[in-house]
Design goal:
Layout (H helix, E strand, L loop, with lengths): L5 H8 L3 H9 L6 H13 L6 H8 L4 E6 L6 H15 L3 E6 L7 H17 L4 E5 L10 H11 L4 E4 L9 E5 L1 H14 L5 E4 L6 H16 L9 E2 L5 H12 L8 E4 L2 H13 L9 E3 L16 E3 L2 H17 L7 E4 L2 E3 L11
Helix pairs in contact: 1-2, 1-3, 5-12, 6-7, 8-9, 10-11
C-alpha cells in the first residue's frame, strides 16, 4: 500500500501544500469549506503527519531530555510527575535517562551521564533538564562541569537543585539551608536540646546545605552541636537504620530528637528505634526532609519538610519552555521555599 504524503493530500484537495500544512498545524486561517475538504481527506486516508518532517520545518522536535540518578528514590518520580504534566500541556514528549546511581559507583554514574548527553544531542532534543548526579556534588571537577557547559551551547539546559562551577546555568532550586533551619527550629520549639543529624553524603551539596541550616538554627538557639551526633553515609532506609544503630551504640546521653537528611533515612531511623525499644515520638522525635508520599503512610506518620516536588518539576518545565521558545526574559535562578509538614513523629521531649 502506497504511503499517503502531504503532497497527495494537497493534490487531491486541489490546494497547495502550504494550505494543508496550515490545517495540520493550525498556524493560519483557512476557509471553512477548504478546511473541511482537507480534513475529510486526512480522515479518509488516516493520514499521520511525519514528525521528523515537521521538525525539520519548525526546527524543533517537541522532545526534551531528562537525566536523573535514581528512579527508585521516590523524590525523583514526584519531581518527574510535575515536570511531565507541564511539559505535556506544552506539547512535549521526553526521553527519561536514569543513570542508576543506587546500583553503581560514582564513576560509572558520571560516565553514563556523559553518554546520555551525547545520545540526547543525537536525538536532537529541544532542551535538557538535569536532576542530581554531578550537579549535586559539593566539588565537581572542571572537566565534568565543562562538558555540561558545552552541551548548553547547543541546546537549553536547566538544572534542578544543583549547580556547576565555571559557567552560568538556568536553575530551579529549593532553599536547602532554609530547609535545614526550619526542621531544626521545629524541634527546638518543642523543647528539644539534644538533637542529632543523620543521613546524606558529605560530598553532596544538598547534604552540606541541610547540615549548615541545622548548625545555624542550633547556634542561634545557643545549643551546642555534638559532632559525634552528625552522622552521614546515605539516603536509603537501610542506611538510615545503620546510622541510627551507630548513634545508639555511643556511650552517654542519648538524643531526644533526630533531624534526617531525607524521608527514607527517617523511616530507617524509626525502624531502628522501634527494634531498640525506643518509642517515637514519646522517647524520640524524628523529622525528615522531602515529603514523599510514603511519609504520610508510615506509623507514626512522618513530620517532614516539603521540597515542593511537583512545583519544582512544573517550574523547571516552564523555564525550559521559555528558553526553547525564546518567549520573553527567563530568570537565571528560580528559588522555591520549603514548607514544614507536621504529623505524628515529633513531640515535646519526655520529662524525667
Amino acid at each position: 500500500m502506497k504511503t499517503v504524503t502531504v503532497y497527495d493530500i494537497a493534490k487531491e484537495a486541489g490546494v497547495s501544500v502550504a494550505t494543508v500544512s496550515r490545517v495540520l498545524n493550525n498556524t493560519a486561517p483557512v476557509k471553512p469549506a477548504t478546511r473541511e475538504r482537507i480534513q475529510n481527506l486526512i480522515n479518509k486516508h488516516q493520514f499521520q503527519p511525519n514528525a521528523l518532517a515537521r521538525s525539520l520545518i519548525k526546527k524543533v522536535t517537541g522532545m526534551i531530555g531528562i537525566i536523573l540518578p535514581d528512579i527508585t528514590n521516590p523524590f525523583f518520580p514526584e519531581v518527574l510527575a510535575g515536570l511531565e504534566q507541564e511539559a505535556r500541556n506544552k506539547g512535549y514528549t521526553f526521553f527519561l535517562c536514569d543513570t542508576g546511581s543506587s546500583n553503581q559507583d560514582s564513576k560509572e554514574q558520571y560516565r553514563r551521564e556523559s553518554q546520555y548527553f551525547n545520545i540526547l544531542l543525537e536525538k536532537q532534543v529541544d532542551g535538557i533538564i538535569v536532576i542530581g548526579g554531578r550537579i549535586d556534588l559539593q566539588h565537581c571537577s572542571r572537566e565534568m562541569a565543562k562538558e555540561v557547559a558545552e552541551v548548553s551551547k547547543r541546546v537549553p539546559v536547566v538544572l534542578i537543585n544543583g549547580n556547576l562551577p565555571g559557567a552560568k546555568f538556568h536553575r530551579v532550586i529549593i532553599d536547602e539551608v532554609e530547609g535545614g533551619t526550619k526542621v531544626t527550629n521545629h524541634l527546638l520549639g518543642l523543647g528539644h536540646r539534644d538533637i542529632a543529624f543523620i543521613g546524606g553524603y558529605i560530598h553532596m551539596s544538598n547534604t552540606v546545605k541541610r547540615i549548615d541550616g541545622f548548625r545555624s538554627a542550633m547556634e542561634r538557639a545557643g545549643v551546642p552541636v555534638r559532632e559525634d551526633w552528625v552522622i552521614t553515609g546515605g539516603f536509603s532506609v537501610e542506611k538510615g537504620k545503620r546510622m541510627m544503630n551507630e548513634l545508639l551504640a555511643k556511650e552517654g546521653t542519648r538524643p531526644t530528637a533526630v533531624v534526617c537528611a531525607n524521608d527514607l533515612t527517617a523511616i530507617g531511623v524509626i525502624k531502628a528505634a522501634f527494634k531498640s525499644g525506643i518509642r517515637v515520638p514519646e522517647e524520640l522525635s524524628v523529622i525528615g526532609i522531602d515529603d514523599v508520599p510514603l511519609a504520610a503512610n508510615v506509623i507514626p506518620e512522618l513530620t517532614t519538610l516539603s521540597l515542593k516536588c511537583l512545583e519544582l518539576g512544573r517550574t523547571a518545565a516552564n523555564v525550559l519552555h521559555g528558553l526553547i521558545t525564546k518567549s520573553g526574559r527567563v530568570p537565571e535562578l528560580t528559588t522555591l521555599q520549603p514548607e514544614l509538614v507536621i504529623r505524628e513523629s515529633t513531640a515535646s521531649p519526655a520529662r524525667t
